[in-house]
Amino acid sequence: MKFTFTIARRFMLGGKGAGPSQLTGWISIIGLAAGSFALIISLAVLNGFEERVTKRVIGFEGDLRITTVDNNLNLSSILDHVLRDQYVANALPFQERKGLVSSTNQEQRLVSLKAIPIDQFNNFYEIKIEASSQKPDDRSVYIGQVLARRLNVDVGDEINLMSPVDYSGNVGLPRRFSGAIAGVFNAEVLDVDDRVIFIPLSLGEHLFTRKKGFDGIDIRLHDSEKAEDLKRYFRRILPGGISIKSWADLHSGLFNAMRMERLGTMAVLSLIVLVACFNLMSTLVLVTYQKIREIGILRTLGTTARRIQSIILMQGIMIGGLGAVVGIVISLMLVAAQNQFGLFPLPEEIYFIDKLPMVFNAVDLIAVICISFVFILISSIVASSRILKINPKEVVYLEK
């Protein structure tokens, strides 16, 4: 092994007077460094945005949601059971229905009306909110920032709410109920700021005349990372006739799209590494023919063709490994610098954050290392296999 490494190091980039092989070798190193760098940085940025989206979703939806499958099932008893569980930090029953909201200037929007114990709004939801200093009452409602702009309303203004689905009359409009805006929230996720209004349960009883009981229970856990495990746990201990979904289940389309985006990014950026490995292959072939005299001497001295092949293979791993390691180290340093100093700012009014998010993930690092190593190994094996086709008798002819 020491002999192989020593000869490979002396052959590195063709050695003294290598000419073209030295140039192509450095191009291979730079290409592999650029490919590894691009992979790490891109995945770190995607991880950063995914982490923030996840926090926003959990802050708005909670960790788990229980809904009824059996319409005859009463969720009140299940709510009491859930609140007593040691893993549950908080639980919030709700009723939900599509409805209409209108302002005093007659602007109207179709929204989702969510009736909850309004005094628990600030304790349960982890979202930014501009709220009134007064204590919420039976007329207090919370409206999204985008929706408030569309209706041209603000904290303290009056709005009218209607539920056409629950209207049983044949003539006229559904009954209107007024509410006072107690707060304007900014969830910073999906389009909830434009379509959701939180109202008190007492107001929901007047609006949702066709509903019986709660539609569901939002649950916040002490440890959000155990949501999937606790989902299975609650399915075992709670009675049948209910559906339990985690925050990931509720927004599976969004997170599947982000997962596919990650895979697509890795596939596209891996092409940079692949092209660099083609160049590495040509470098090793050039080195092989530039050092044909030395190879002939080694063969004459008794070195086997397989040992010569391992020398070229080792050289390819050394050249490719150098490029990949340089790219990975520089990218990790940049990720650390961005998290520490915020080198790349973002317009906060668009992205809701003031700097480009980068999150290092050990799994991504292992994936990048594996992709780079596999490409380097394959290209080195293909290039080194040329040695097996050369015999010592042809060396003199090739040298001439």
Description of the structure:
Helix 2 (20-61) runs antiparallel to helix 13 (362-384), helix 9 (252-290) packs across helix 11 (305-341) and helix 10 (292-300) packs antiparallel against helix 14 (392-399). The radius of gyration is 32 Å and the shape is elongated. With 400 residues, the chain is of the alpha+beta class. A 6-stranded mixed beta barrel has the order 2-3-8-5-7-6. The chain has 14 helices and 10 strands. A hairpin with a 4-residue loop joins strand 2 and strand 3 (108-116). It has helices at residues 2-10, 20-61, 75-83, 121-124, 145-151, 201-207, 227-237, 247-250, 252-290, 292-300, 305-341, 348-351, 362-384, 392-399; strands at 64-68, 88-103, 108-116, 128-131, 140-144, 158-162, 177-186, 196-200, 216-221, 242-246.
Shape: elongated
Uncertain stretches: none
Radius of gyration: 32 Å
Strand residues, percent = 15-25%
Largest sheet: 6 strands, mixed, barrel
Count of helix runs: 14
- What letter string, H or E per element, gives the SSE order? HHEHEEHEEHEEEHEHEHHHHHHH
The spatial strand order of the largest sheet comes to: 2-3-8-5-7-6
Helix/strand-derived category reads: alpha+beta
* Count of strand segments: 10
Helical fraction equals: 40-55%
Separation, N- and C-terminal Cα atoms: 32 Å
**Average predicted confidence as pLDDT:** 86
Features:
alpha+beta, 10 strands, 400 residues
Write the layout of secondary structure elements.
Elements: H1 2-10, H2 20-61, E1 64-68, H3 75-83, E2 88-103, E3 108-116, H4 121-124, E4 128-131, E5 140-144, H5 145-151, E6 158-162, E7 177-186, E8 196-200, H6 201-207, E9 216-221, H7 227-237, E10 242-246, H8 247-250, H9 252-290, H10 292-300, H11 305-341, H12 348-351, H13 362-384, H14 392-399
Parallel strand pairs: 3-8, 5-7
Antiparallel strand pairs: 1-9, 1-10, 2-3, 2-6, 2-9, 4-7, 5-8, 6-7
